[in-house]
Design a protein that fits this description.
15 strands, globular, 41% helix, alpha/beta, 15-stranded mixed sheet
Length: 558
């Protein structure tokens, strides 16, 4: 029997994603969630529950309120998912004006905190706000911010000590979002980074667009905005822009200033032309392709499809050990589902706690996926090298890339599909968890950018729709993918070959979306990318695509 005070995560391995799946199944039985806003509130409450007793009490409470809740909720039509054709979209910026009438009286008596640095900018912004009656203090990481109405953070190229995104997340978490009305970050990195030839300068890309778009989705009553200065601005101009943005209440969580014009990001349909006589890449049996995180999941499915068209040497890199060296691999090799593996482990009696069983089930399932990927690709005529490596180990990855060049004298292409999800609403998200999700994508990307030779034919970065629109519970994941988007644009100008960041929507039957979450997406009217169709799109992007960033999605309900 399970103890009611067992911790859902530590003792039972039921993380926030699995709790969301449980509630998605329960809602049809106990009658909540007909209203989308109500469903979001439910998810926030659920994230805070840590024990079985708490979950049982919550379900009991919801069940008792079912009749009343149903009477209060207006009848709403569940969005219908149509068989949408997949859309391919590119990105551009469009001029957009700040509010023409700006009421500075709203600043009277409001308390603002501004991050300190060694530039004149903080003082200039402080002076500008104080002109209009605001109370402004310069703060550091140790300051209590629960009393402030607004937080303004700076990310300036000229600053000697540049804070990381984790530093800024720490500050944002100190806010009381019931009180705070403005959370802004101003960066001029984009205005200076393209002028520097040293590729390591790209490490200044921190992923703020995805972070702020996700914050905006979680905190409806707070204006969360990232202000990017893509051309150099004077100190007084930046102070003026800051004031103007605080007094502008439009929707964009990301705005871009180019010269003196304010812009927003536009997403434009851009069908891919596949009528070229010749593909942009030329691979033969001697070619070498490096795949990060490509031995399982959606990345593996797409790489397998590519390897059928382009058989060569593929070096697959993942955290798991090579399953071909596991003594127990043959015992489980024929098992294709977690349910089958879990039942076998329970019957064996080797593991006693649910957490141990779940951990071993996940390990075996991953091993089977990796083994199946290797066997399938070898059967297609490829040479497969599997390298076990923690992709957050920058030195280890750097050494691996060096060894590839030493052994093969070439590296023709790279596919970066590694990723980690630890979804939680921002209030429950720890900075250590944020760092794990962020680093899994960003650290290997930085090494690739600094180690690849310019003759690499292609680099494909698997980004996400989360960095384009933001997503509740995915501030870290959206931020990490924003870094991929920024790097793609910069590397496309530095390498001879093509570099592309693909912002994928959710996949049907593969990737990081379970069957239960698929149903939840369908309830919200969000379509999924069919695997077979997505495979062809992926291959065509490598062969014919010209943009440095594209969005591939189905439906338009984001």
């Amino acid at each position: 029997m399970l103890g009611l005070d067992l911790d859902l995560e530590a003792d039972l391995s039921i993380d926030s994603i699995k709790r969301m799946e449980i509630i998605a199944d329960l809602k049809n039985k106990i009658g909540f969630g007909e209203n989308l806003e109500q469903a979001d509130d439910v998810m926030e409450k659920l994230a805070a529950i840590k024990t079985l007793r708490g979950l049982a009490s919550w379900i009991s409470e919801m069940s008792g309120d079912t009749t009343e809740t149903k009477n209060e909720v207006k009848e709403v039509n569940t969005p219908e998912v149509t068989n949408n054709v997949l859309s391919r979209l590119r990105f551009d910026i469009t001029p957009t004006d700040a509010s023409s009438v700006q009421n500075t009286e709203v600043l009277q008596g409001k308390r603002f905190a501004i991050t300190q640095d060694d530039t004149q900018q903080t003082s200039a912004i402080k002076t500008e706000l104080e002109k209009h009656g605001a109370i402004v203090e310069l703060v550091d990481a140790d300051k209590d911010l629960s009393h402030v109405d607004g937080l303004i953070m700076l990310d300036l190229f000229s600053a000697t000590d540049k804070p990381s995104i984790i530093d800024h997340v720490d500050l944002i978490k100190k806010l009381d979002f019931d009180k705070a009305k403005w959370v802004y970050l101003i960066s001029d990195i984009a205005a200076h980074i393209q002028e520097v030839t040293d590729v390591s300068v790209l490490r200044h890309h921190q992923g703020y667009p995805g972070l702020f778009k996700s914050l905006a989705r979680e905190f409806d009553h707070t204006t969360c905005r990232f202000i990017s200065l893509s051309t150099p601005q004077e100190v007084d101009q930046i102070a003026d822009i800051t004031l103007k943005e605080i007094l502008t209440n439009d929707k964009p969580a990301e705005v871009i200033y180019k010269n003196e014009q304010r812009h927003k990001v536009d997403i434009i349909p851009s069908p891919l032309s596949t009528s070229l006589n010749e593909a942009h890449i030329q691979l033969d049996q001697k070619s070498v392709v490096l795949v990060l995180g490509g031995a399982q999941g959606i990345t593996a499915e797409l790489v397998k499809h590519m390897s059928q068209a382009y058989p060569c040497t593929y070096i697959l890199v993942g955290r798991s050990a090579d399953p071909r060296n596991e003594t127990s691999a043959k015992e489980f090799e024929g098992m294709k589902t977690k349910e089958e593996i879990r039942a076998y482990l329970i019957k064996s009696g080797k593991f006693t706690s649910p957490a141990e069983i779940e951990k071993e089930t996940t390990k075996v399932y991953k091993n089977n996926q990796i083994l199946r990927t290797i066997r399938d690709m070898e059967a297609l005529g490829n040479t497969i090298i599997y390298q076990s490596l923690d992709l957050c180990d920058e030195e280890g990855l750097s050494n691996l890339i060096s060894s590839i060049y030493e052994k093969y004298s070439r590296l023709d292409g790279v596919i970066h599909g590694a990723g980690l999800l630890e979804d939680k609403l921002f209030k429950q998200k720890t900075t250590s968890s944020f760092g794990r999700v962020f680093d899994t994508k960003v650290k290997p990307l930085r090494v690739l950018a600094e180690q690849l030779r310019t003759d690499c034919q292609f680099v494909v970065l698997f980004s996400s729709i989360a960095s384009v629109y933001g997503n509740k519970g995915q501030t870290d994941y959206a931020a990490a993918n924003s870094v991929l988007d920024d790097y793609a644009n910069a590397l496309n100008k530095r390498l001879q070959g093509k570099v592309i960041s693909i912002n994928w929507g959710p996949w049907k039957g593969a990737g990081m979306v379970s069957s239960t979450l698929e149903s939840e997406y369908e309830r919200r009217g969000i379509s999924m990318i069919p695997l077979d169709e997505g495979k062809e799109i992926f291959l065509n992007e490598i062969k014919y695509g010209t943009e440095s960033q594209v969005l591939i999605m189905s439906g338009n309900n984001w």
